[in-house]
Amino acid sequence: MKKVLMGNHALSYGAKLSRVQVIAAYPITPQTQVVELLSEMCADGELDAQFVKVESEHSALAASIGASAVGARTFTATSAQGLALMHEMIHWAVGARTPVVLGNINRAMAPPWSIWTDQNDSLSERDTGIMQVYCESNQEVQDTVIQAYKVAEKVLLPCMVVLDAFYLSHTYEPVDIPEQKLVDKYLPPFNPPYKLDPKDVHAFGGLTDAKWYYELRYKIESAMNRAREEWKKADDEFGKIFGRRYGLVEDYRCKDADIILITSGTITGTARITVDILRDKGKKVGVLKIRVFRPFPTDKVREMLGGAKKVACIDRNISFGQSGIFFEEIKSALYNSSHRPPIWGYIAGLGGRDVTPETIKEIVKRTEESDRPEDLIWIGLKK
Amino acid sequence: MPNAKKIIWKGVDDMPEMAVSIASMRINKTASWRNLKPIIDYNKCKPCGICWKFCPEPSILLKEDGTPMIDYDYCKGCGICAEECPRNAITMHREER
Fold it and tell me: What pLDDT is recorded for position A245?
């Protein structure tokens, strides 16, 4: 069944189709409609889940972790300051190996207050061990939630499904909502190896001295490493059942491209259109969208960028004192690779500033004309 | 204890994914990091139960006649019992390792 949905409701439908059993969330612009719709679904008996109202985002994720520990499939959603408040609990969800799925609407961090999109909120959680997937369309948002449970429950790591504020969260697009029985076929019930159960007693997350802490961190990294393969498998199986695949990265006209643009989120669609315009003018340009950010698809990035003459990375985020964060990641993926094309790093669209085809044309032009790569270029800065 | 069994792990390949005790706290003793050990001098102790009330763990067990015993499997050696004992019947001694 096709419906016209806002990005936020695509998250809700993804959770509903995944038959989540517990939802704990606190409202924040621009995420509110995600849980608003889920609470309605619970109230109307459409969704057999416990909706836990909490007093903060920290509690929202804490409640989600607790529910996940008893073996419930659990969902939460937030944005910006809310995600920052969850930070401690994100480490906890990872260490406790609870596969909570968290919808995050990318919103710029305050101050100054902003409700518009950029990626510094989710990318600040880069090193916690939560998986991160950046979505481009509402269809992808819904589908990614379902895939996220499939992978997260397999490797026992939480997963963040990320979408741009307003450009996706509040934009209505047609979304194909699959039949529940097909989703049930794809996603079996959650059954963790250890759970909080009075009939089978275990203590969780207790004090662990240096004798085993190191090994437990290794286990998280191995799970992340396995997750690369699991994302591929989950996506392939999804494609077979539902006819849609997304990949860990998605390339668009990269094959013979001289310049490859690196994008994530909604900038990708704009970049694709710009590539078509530039290709018509004879410029060999392509786009590589990074969809799965954690685990980072290092091999795929090496393979896709291996033939490029130049790479231009567009970051809607910044690691102050360094560069764009995707730029850093791409650079570090290529450093030990045999072919290392020069990379230009562009900062664009912070705080929801529109990134238009004109912005992307300027990025391509600048990359084309430059013979020395630069780490940090502010595009469209008012002077 | 339905499924309780003590398991010694060799390494990453046979241990569980998360920090989880394989059994309840009855099997998982938690006193390995105690540095100071409380010892009750039963010549001084007139079983009043104050140590039992104050022990935060609780690692003081009472016999039927009210005589306190320290459960060294769980006592962390905080010394609160020694501090609170009105007859100074409990003293703290450095653990020998």
Answer: 97
